[in-house]
Amino acid sequence: MKNTDTHTRFIKETAASLGFDYCGIAKAVRLDEDARRLEQWLNQGMHGSMKYMENHFELRVDPGKLVPGARSVITLLQNYYPSEQQDTGSPRIAKYAFGNDYHEIIRAKMNDFLARIREKIGDVDGRGFVDSAPVLERAWARKSGLGWIGKNGNLLTPKNGSFFFIATLITNLELSYDDPFARDHCGSCTRCIDACPTDAILPGKVVDGSKCISYFTIELKDSLIPDEMKGKFDDWAFGCDTCQDVCPWNRFSKPHKEAGLHPIPEILNLATTEWEHMTEESFRKIFRHSALSRTKWKGIQRNLKFLKEE
């Protein structure tokens, strides 16, 4: 058996042992088609005030710019679908933020992953990323054979839907490559487009980020959310899962088994008034390891006030 095949098998077995649900591998090449789509998206201003997305364009589309001599892009998926749901009537929080911050959980796994690869194979150069660098994760996931890009812009797997975190390891190690996922299984379905509360999902698998509820409740740093959005948030106070919740493929979602992602009790149980009366000190204590810390106490209070005014 060739070294590439032996190394590839070891990497996939190691990924599974670390609790990743999927592992796919693609050859490291410049993503020319995705570069054109990204450039057009940026030129149309669909990133809103997320100016950081204009930076490091070449790094986003060329893995060799992130890891000189890159030969392989390894994509890993971590299921985050929860076994428990929020109480009806509570301010709605996107499922990915139910537990501890996934950046910390997956970053630790990626460090372990790379360490095991080096211990087994030798002096391997590589960098792992999980929303921490300009990487087109979904494009690499498709090229690695893990799924297709849905009309809502999410990666969809045929067996388990879309509730996954995506992590990427770019390395100079030559491996055996998976075939890209060729088919699009969305067909004529438009449920995500029809259900989007702010009409952010456009034909052609384009999502106008500047209209997305996740953008307004997390990324927007202004003190006020535009008045034209009033009445459209469906009680979402942090992120939004509407397009995933209505997707037929997510009927195959299964609860994750990652202890660190188990829901923080307050997220499941707090009523609106309890959120509104929470002090900044309490917020910091309860959510110190949560993705909710991204928007800070002031951001959550702004979002709650906006929902109350709807």
Automatic annotation (TrEMBL):
KW Membrane (keyword) present: no
UniProt xrefs under PROSITE patterns: 4FE4S_FER_1, 4FE4S_FER_2
Signal peptide extent: none
UniProt cofactor note: Binds 2 [4Fe-4S] clusters per monomer.
Alphabetized GO MF terms: epoxyqueuosine reductase activity
EC number annotated for this UniProt entry: 1.17.99.6
Pathway(s) it belongs to: tRNA modification; tRNA-queuosine biosynthesis
Residues at which [4Fe-4S] cluster 1 binds: C186, C189, C192, C247
Domain 4Fe-4S ferredoxin-type: 177-206
InterPro entries: 4Fe4S_Fe-S-bd, 4Fe4S_Fe_S_CS, QueG, QueG_DUF1730
Keyword Nucleus set for record: no
Active-site residues, as the UniProt record annotates them: D131 (proton donor)
Pfam families: Fer4_16 (PF13484), QueG_DUF1730 (PF08331)
PANTHER family linked: EPOXYQUEUOSINE REDUCTASE
Subunit: Monomer.
Family per similarity comment: Belongs to the QueG family.
Function according to Swiss-Prot or TrEMBL: Catalyzes the conversion of epoxyqueuosine (oQ) to queuosine (Q), which is a hypermodified base found in the wobble positions of tRNA(Asp), tRNA(Asn), tRNA(His) and tRNA(Tyr).
Name this protein carries in UniProt: Epoxyqueuosine reductase
Source species: Terrimonas ginsenosidimutans
Record lineage: Bacteria, Pseudomonadati, Bacteroidota, Chitinophagia, Chitinophagales
Gene assigned in the entry: queG
